[in-house]
Amino acid sequence: MVKDKQRTLIFINILISCIASSMLATALTTALPTMINEFNISVTTGQWLTSGYSLAMAIMMPLTAFLIIRFPTKKLYLAAISFFVVGLLLAVIAPNFTVLMIGRILQACGNGILSSMAQVILLTIYPLEKRGSIMGWYGLSIGAAPVIAPTITGILIDITGWRMMFYLVIAIMIVSFIWAMAVFDDVLPNRKQTFDLLSFVLSGFAYGGLTLGIGNISSSLFSLQSGLPLLIGLLSMGLFAYRQFHLDDPFLDLSVLKNKIFVVSLIGSMLLYFIMMGSSIILPLLIQSIEGYSATVSGLVTLPGSLAMTLISPFTGKFYDKFGMKKLFFVGAIALLLSNLGMVFITLKTTIFIIALLNAFRSIAIGCLMMPLVTWGMSHIDNSLTAHGTALLTSLRTIAGAIGSAVFVSLMTTITKQSLPIYGGNAAIHGLNITFLAMTLSAVLLVLFAFFSGKSTLDTATELK
């Protein structure tokens, strides 16, 4: 049994680690235009610094269920921080895009373990009646941190260059490593489990194939670049699922999918991340590449949204504990729809204050949905499946985010090119408007899903396992 003081110290350490690691999920969105110029790469290639990061995290996360069950909590947590720091060091010295991408992949591997472990640890050491509130505070790290990161990065780029962001996170993670050595214990149960290499390989091909295929879909659905990876991804996913249901000790226990509430929270989280990560990479391109403002201004535009999410996340956790998920789900989905709809009508004459306001509205919507969906889904599965449920939910929503980044950047690039003969100098803003229209339609799906699933799964405020 973890004592209250130690539980609080572990929670603070998790917050520090996850804030630092989560920042780098989106920090490079502001730096992307600068990196594109420095490394002489295309926008489509550059966006893989964020979507490739998400992809690597998603591939890593099914493995975390095995790692959490097999290895002591403290050693695994410290190893994850070490992986992350090595990736940061590579990014600092990166002479070209390839080395930087390798560094990003190592960072993603470390972050994948950290983020999965964090949720399992918190859901294990805190009682059911406190989970909503504590996960609301935890939501600041994986919610507000990625949103505020572009602001910090923008300022650092204009003052010292984009590499300073990695120096800053290295310092934070070293402090976190020392703190974890002092306060952590092995708080999660372990048992011997055989590592199923085939399952891990199949999961990698499934996630990788789907993301690469959808990311290249702008050329043609039936082209070799998109069709072949999609086919490989779908086949691998089918084989992976079949294998898990027929293993005595599954690599990733998919029996969690038999729980209807977990499935609803999973699909809702995937739709949310699909929209959220797409808009997070498009917004800096709008401010810098289309509007022509500096990286600092681009970062400051996202600041009101960061503050709004920071303020609302703890309250949404308490709201969830008291009233349940139904109202939060529907209101958050409607707010996300309206904020994306507002972006559809942006022109070159639209002030950055309006853009910042719309982004703040979007951030509030995300704050209403992100952690409450996770807490709600995870609170309705058996404790023995917590590691597996967390790995599945986190990996699939992360891969949805990677797909969103790839799809919306490809869509904007394609529409802009095709619109040049008609719109001329306004082609880029037209491409952006159509891209946000696609995000709006995606948000409509989330609203419909929240409404119809609510009739059967969200009727009570305190459903129990």
Automatic annotation (TrEMBL):
InterPro entries: EmrB-like (IPR004638), MFS (IPR011701), MFS_dom (IPR020846), MFS_trans_sf (IPR036259). It comes from Enterococcus dongliensis. It is found in: Cell membrane. Pfam families: MFS_1 (PF07690). It comes from the Bacteria. Belongs to the major facilitator superfamily. EmrB family. Its main location: membrane. CDD domains: MFS_LmrB_MDR_like. Keywords: Cell membrane, Membrane, Transmembrane, Transmembrane helix, Transport. Residues 10-458 form the Major facilitator superfamily (MFS) profile domain. GO terms for molecular function: transmembrane transporter activity. The lineage of its organism: Bacteria, Bacillati, Bacillota, Bacilli, Lactobacillales. One of its GO terms (cellular component) is plasma membrane. NCBIfam families: efflux_EmrB (TIGR00711). It is a multi-pass membrane protein. This is MDR family MFS transporter. The chain crosses the membrane at residues 12-36, 48-69, 76-99, 105-125, 137-159, 165-184, 196-215, 221-242, 262-287, 293-316, 328-346, 352-374, 395-415, 427-452.
